[in-house]
Amino acid sequence: MNNFTYSIPTVIHFGRGQLHHLSELKQSGSRVLLVYGGGSIKRSGLYDEAVKILTDSGLSITELSGVEPNPRIESVRRGAELCKANNIDMVLAIGGGSTIDCAKVVAAGACYDGDPWELVLDGSKIKAALPVYSVLTLSATGSEMDKYAVISDLSKNEKWGTGSDLVKPVMSVLDPTYTFTVSPKQTAAGTADMMSHTFENYFTNVRGAELQGNLCEAVLKTCIKYGPIALAEPENYDARANLMWAGSLAINGLLKGGAEVGWCVHPMEHELSAFYDITHGEGLAILTPVWMRFVLKNYPSKTAQLASYGRNVWNLSGEDSEVANKAVEKTAEFFFDTMKMPANLRAVGITEKVHFEEMAEKAAAGCEDSFVPLTKEDIISIFDAAF
Amino acid sequence: MNNFTYSIPTVIHFGRGQLHHLSELKQSGSRVLLVYGGGSIKRSGLYDEAVKILTDSGLSITELSGVEPNPRIESVRRGAELCKANNIDMVLAIGGGSTIDCAKVVAAGACYDGDPWELVLDGSKIKAALPVYSVLTLSATGSEMDKYAVISDLSKNEKWGTGSDLVKPVMSVLDPTYTFTVSPKQTAAGTADMMSHTFENYFTNVRGAELQGNLCEAVLKTCIKYGPIALAEPENYDARANLMWAGSLAINGLLKGGAEVGWCVHPMEHELSAFYDITHGEGLAILTPVWMRFVLKNYPSKTAQLASYGRNVWNLSGEDSEVANKAVEKTAEFFFDTMKMPANLRAVGITEKVHFEEMAEKAAAGCEDSFVPLTKEDIISIFDAAF
Questions:
Q1: How far is CA A136 from CA A93, A95, A133, B348, in A?
Q2: Under DSSP, is residue B62 helix (H, G, I), strand (E, B) or coil?
Q3: CATH 3.40.50.1970 location in chain A
Q4: Closest B-chain CA to A17
Q5: Are B1 and A242 contacting, i.e. CB atoms less than 8 angstroms apart?
Q6: Which has the closest alpha carbon to B72: B95, B105, B48?
C-alpha cells in the first residue's frame, strides 16, 4: 500500500428534505453567486425553494445561469467577473457535475488576477478560492465531494481536468429525490461515469492495497444492482440513493488513497468530448470494454486482476483467463444491453476518424503511468476498435 | 436508506515516515499536552522522535503518562487539571484507542467547569474542546478518526461511551510500522474490535442501505485476510497497513451513515470490561458468535441477512439457513482457532456468574433499538452461553 493523505472535509447532508441546510451558507458571508444550468431546476421548483431559503437567511443572490454540459471556459470567466464585480462571498452550485465544476473554477477565478483558463491548465496556480457549496441533481461525477473540475475550451478543442483542495465543497446537499426526473440517457451515463471512476482506481499497480480494492468492488456491485432499477423505476428512492452515494464515494479519495495509479480511460474520453462534445459517461462506457480487451490481449500479467474483478463483482468462476474475458463481456453487456447505452463511437455521432491521431497524441500524455502504459499508437488502436 | 449527515474532518497522514506532520500542531498554538500509556513508546523510540519534532517546532510539552487500557476517569481528571493549570492549547495522544479516548475527554474536560465524568455520562454536555491530535500505535478502536471515547470508573464498575463532533481528531498519523511490535494477543483483540464495529453497522434493520452493507463486507474480508497474516508475520507491512486503515474506516461514520441501528454486542461487552477489566476485543470475540446464534434461534426473519454475510464474506453457498449457520461457525473458528483468542468467559478469568444479572440489566438499556431487541433475560442467556 502506498503512503497517502486522506482529507475529505465536505459535510454531506444526505436524504429527503435536506435543502434547509442552505441556511448555513450565512457562515461564509452575505453575498452568494448562484450557479445553475439550463433551467430544469426552475421547472422542478428547486430554484424557488432554494432562493427562498437563501433570502430568508439574509443572503443576497447574484446568478450565473446557463452553464453547459461539458462546461465552457466562457461561463467560468463570466462567473469570475460577476464575483469580482459584486464582491461575492461564496459560490453555490445547484445542478450536476458540470455546474459544480464550473462553480469551483469560478470560485478560484474570483480570487485570481489572470485568466481562469490558466487555473484549468495548472491547478497548482489556485492559491485561494471562495467557499463552494452544492446541491446535487445528477449522480455521476462526484464533484459534490471532490477537488476536481473539468472545463472545456471548444474554440481550441481542449478539455482539461484541474483540481485543488481549496475548491472542495464545504457542504453539499444530496437529496436523491432531485434525481427522480433524470432521463434514462443521463441516468445510464452517470452510472457509467461513477463506475469508470471506480475502475480507474481499482485497476492499480500498487500491491497490497486490498482494502481499497474491496471497497471498489462494493461500489461497482452497488452500481450494477441499482443502475437498471433506476432506469426501470425512475422514482425508486433506494436506487437513486445508492447511486447518488456511490457516485460521491467513487471519486472523493476513499478508493484512491494508498492505491494511486494514473487514469487512462478518462484522458481518452476527454479528447472525444473535447473534439465532438459527446456525453462524457457515454464515451467512457464505449471505451471501457475496448480498453479492457486491449489490456487482456497485450498484458497477460494483468489477467489475474481482471479475473478477480470477474469473480468478486460478477460472481464468475473458472480459470483466470476465462473469467477475465467473461468479465469484460459482462461489462459490455451491462453498458450496452442492460443500460441501453450507445455501443460505439458512430452511435454517438463520431462518424470519421480524421481526428484520431491528434486526439491520441494528446491523450497519451496523460496515460504514461496508468495501469498499462498507453502510447499514441495504442490509443489509436483503441479508438479504432471503439469506432 | 436513512437520511444522514456525513462529516469526517480528520486529516489522515498514512504510511511510513509521516511523523514529521506533528510540526503542523503549531497551527493550534504553542502548548501541547502529550498523552501516552505505559511507556512502550519510550522503548520503541517513538517518544523521543515525537518530542524532538514538537520541540523543534517551538511547542512546549506537558505530559500525561500512564493512561490505562480501559482508561480510567482518574486519568482524565488529572489530564484536564494539567490543561487548566498549564494553559494548554491542544492535546496529542500517542498510543492506542485507550490513550486517544482519554485524550479526547481530557480535551473536553479542559473546557468544562464540572467533573469530566459528567461528560462521559452525557456527551451533549461537551460544548467546547481543545483540538485533539493522535499518533496511532494499535489498530483496533478507530478512535483516531471518530467522535467516540470510552471511559471507566472502576470504583463504580461503570464503563460508558461518550461522543462529540468537537473531539474528532484534527489530524492523525497512521504509520503501520508502529504496530509491528503489537503482541499477538492485542493484534487479535484489535482485529476482533474492528470486525465488531463493522458487524454492529452491518446487521441493520434499515432497508436499502446496500452500498453501506457492501462496504462493511469489504472491511470484514480485509480483516479476515490480514488478521492471520499479521499474527504469523508481525512485520508484514501490507497486513499491518490494511488492518490499520480497516480499523479507522470501520467506525468513522462511513459504514454507519444511512444504515443506523442500535449497537448491542458493544453494550454487553462494556459490562464485562466494567466489572472484570477484561480486554475489550476479547470480550467482543467471545460474545459475537453467541449473539449470532441467539439471533438465528429466536429471529428466523433475520436468517437471510446472516446468509448474505455467509455468501459475501465467507464465500459459502447453499440454502439460507445452512449458510447462515455455517457463517456463524466460520466466525467462531476465525476468532478462536485462526486468531487463537479465548473462546469463553472462563478463559478470560470470569469464573462466576454472580454479576450476570446486574450487568445484563445495565446492558439492556443500550440494546432496545438494536438489530434484534435484547431484554435483560436475553442478555443473561447470552452471558450464560458464553460462559
A1: 8, 5, 10, 52
A2: strand
A3: 11-178
A4: B3
A5: yes
A6: B105
Chain A residues touching residue B217 (CB < 8 angstroms): 214, 218
User: Strands A171-174, A4-14: parallel, antiparallel or unpaired by DSSP?
Assistant: parallel
**What is the ipTM, given to two decimal places?**
0.96
Among B8, B17, B208, the residue with its CB nearest the CB of A241 is B208
* Among the listed residues A139, A113, A140, the one whose alpha carbon sits nearest the alpha carbon of residue A125: A113
Whether residues B1 and A241 touch (CB distance < 8 A) is answered with yes
**Which helix (H) or strand (E) covers residue B238, if one does?**
helix B237-249
Cell readout for A279 is: 456525453
- What string of pLDDT tens digits covers the 387 residues of chain B? 999 999 999 999 999 999 999 999 999 999 999 999 988 999 999 999 999 999 999 999 999 999 998 899 999 999 999 999 999 999 999 999 999 999 999 999 999 999 999 999 999 999 999 999 999 999 999 999 999 999 999 898 888 899 999 999 999 999 999 999 999 999 999 999 999 999 999 999 999 999 999 999 999 999 999 999 999 999 999 999 999 999 999 999 999 999 999 999 999 999 999 899 899 999 999 999 999 999 999 999 999 999 999 999 999 999 999 999 999 999 999 999 999 999 999 999 999 999 999 999 999 988 889 999 999 999 999 999 999
Q: What is the DSSP string of B244-286?
A: HHHHHHTTSSTTTTTS--B--HHHHHHHHHHHH---HHHHHHH
With DSSP H G I counted as helix, E B as strand and the rest as coil, what are the percentages for chain B, rounded to 5? 55, 15, 30
CATH of span A11-178: 3.40.50.1970
Q: How far apart are CA A334 and CA A339, in angstroms?
A: 6
Partners of residue A3 in chain B, C-beta under 8 Å: 14-18
With beta carbons less than 8 A apart as the criterion, state whether A269 and A149 touch: no
Geometric angle at alpha carbon B216, from A216 and B132, rounded to 5°? 95
Q: Which residues contact B131 (CB under 8 A, 6 or more apart)?
A: B28, B89, B90, B91, B107, B170
Where exactly does CATH 1.20.1090.10 map onto chain A?
A: 183-386
Surface of A (211-230) touching B: CB under 8 A: 211, 214-215, 217-219, 221-222, 225-226
The total number of residues shown for chain A amounts to 387
Phi, psi for residue B109 in degrees, rounded to 5: -60, -30
What are the two backbone dihedrals, phi and then psi, of residue A321, each rounded to the nearest 5 degrees? -65, -40
Distance CA A384, CA A291 (A): 11
Judge: domain A183-386, CATH 4.10.320.10. no
Q: What is the DSSP letter of B300?
A: G
3-state SS assignment for residue B72: strand
A3 in B contact zone (CB under 8 Å): yes
Q: How many residues does chain B have?
A: 387
Buried/exposed code over A314-348 (b: 16+ C-beta within 10 A; e: otherwise): bebeeebeebbbbbbebbbebbbeebebbbebeeb
- What cell numbers appear for A334 in the block? 451491462
Query: Are the C-beta atoms of residues A205 and A169 closer than 8 Å to each other?
Result: no
A202 touches chain B (CB under 8 A): no
Q: Which residues contact B205 (CB under 8 A, 6 or more apart)?
A: B261, B371
